[in-house]
Structures are given as C-alpha cells and as structure tokens.
Amino acid sequence: MIVERNQVVVSGSPEGQPIVFIHGFGCDQTMWRQVAPMFEDTFQVVTYDLTGMGKSDLAAYDMKRYAELEAHVIDLLSIMQELDLENVVLVGHSIGATIALLAANRAPERVASLVLVSPTPSFLDDPANGFGGGFSNADLAELITFLEVNHLGWSTRMAPTIAGQPAGEPSAEELTQSFCRTDPSIAQYFGRVTFFADERSAFEQAARPALILHCRNDALVPMQVADWMGARVPGATMKVLDTTGHAPHMTVPSDVVGAMRDYLAGA
C-alpha cells in the first residue's frame, strides 16, 4: 500500500479540510516540521516522502517509471484516493510545487487550492521565448555532472546556496545532511529529472488558484521567473518574502505560516 511505501503521516483535525505537504528534491517530509503542525488545529494534515526520498521504500524507485514527474504525480493522487481526501489544499516546495500543480491539473475535482513555495516552471533559460529560468543548458549539465561525480561534495556546496545561509547554519546544515543521506544513484537520476523539467505549459494552464511564495533573493529562481508566474499562472496570488534562499519553510517558517493562513482564510 502506498501509505506504507511512502511513509504517509496523518495528523491534526480528522474532520478538517485536508492539507497535503510535498517536499522538494533531496529532502523528506521532516522539512515541513516548522510549518505543517501549525495547521493541525483546523486542518487534517498529511505529509509523506516522495518515492526514492527519505524513509520511503527505495526498492519502489523504478528509474524507468520515474523518468518523468508524472510518476510522482500519480503517487500523490494515489495517496489522496487511498485516504479518500477531497477539497484538498496542496502545499509543495520547489519540484514538489510542480508535482502539486500537475496533480491539481490532472484531478481538479479533488483539489481546492495550491500553495507553491519557491516554485519554478523551468530552471532552464529559453532566450528564444524570452524566458530566463536562471541556468543555461551548460550550467545544468555541469551541475548534474558534479552531482554524479561527487555526491557528498555537491551536497556540501549546494545546501548553503539553497538555504541562503552560510555553511554550518542550522538550515544549511540540515539540508546538507538530508542531501548526503539520499541514495546517490537516486539523487543523480531525480536531480536530472528535476533540473531539466520544463512545465511552463502546465503552469499556464493551472486548474486551481495558487498562492506563490517567492524569496526576494533566491539563488535558484530569479525574480524574473516570479514575475513570469505572476503574469502567466491563472488565479495566482504572488507573495514575495523579503528573505534569501530557496527554502523559506525552513529559514523563515513563521513568514510562510502567516502568508498561508492569510491566503487560506481568504480562499
């Protein structure tokens, strides 16, 4: 059963509106521990580990199947179906935000709204169409090669950049350890899927309204991508957090909780 396979945890109010948290690349559900419990008073809170990450059943990670994000989308929808969740709020971070949006597009009848934390439809620049994702094809190829050649070195170097904190600071250290714990072969494969994904068309066809939380200084997702999403994603509410990094749910969790509460109260 997928509930056991993906370490699904249900907490909070059994009769409350379901809210499901989806983590990002190289992470697990514990990255939400400063945010998700803040909604247990009124929501039915669901967290889980993406297949191949955290304490999920690593044997279930079939590289052929997970060559596309769609497999993770099907996993999420399967969890929602198995738990019989409807009127769901999906909260995703980074590539987890993309998975949330794709799931809402595929099954809008189950989803009420989205909260996308540091999302991007594509990390890749597309100068011909005026889209600056932040990285050239060569940049991303080099990033993936570094990950393949030196998993621990990649983890140590990239975690502070993603956290927006110096090495040794709490969130940077937590991300470093999380990346290091990830199975290297899965990290390399999922890293390629993550960084080369291009879901611009899916974002432009978003089936459910979304709160988009973007850090003003994000080393992975430039402000122009946030502007693109604000202009192109139907029903989007853009909130720019005055902070640095790509993981505000870890570095400024109270700001994320406050923005989410305001949005969900209005929604």
UniProtKB/TrEMBL annotation:
InterPro entries reported for this sequence: AB_hydrolase_1, AB_hydrolase_fold
One protein family per Pfam: Abhydrolase_6
Domain AB hydrolase-1: 19-257
Protein family per UniProt: Belongs to the AB hydrolase superfamily.
PANTHER family, per the entry: ESTERASE-RELATED (PTHR43039)
Protein name (database record): Sigma factor SigB regulation protein RsbQ
Species of the source: Limimaricola soesokkakensis
Classification lineage: Bacteria, Pseudomonadati, Pseudomonadota, Alphaproteobacteria, Rhodobacterales
Gene that produces this protein: rsbQ_1
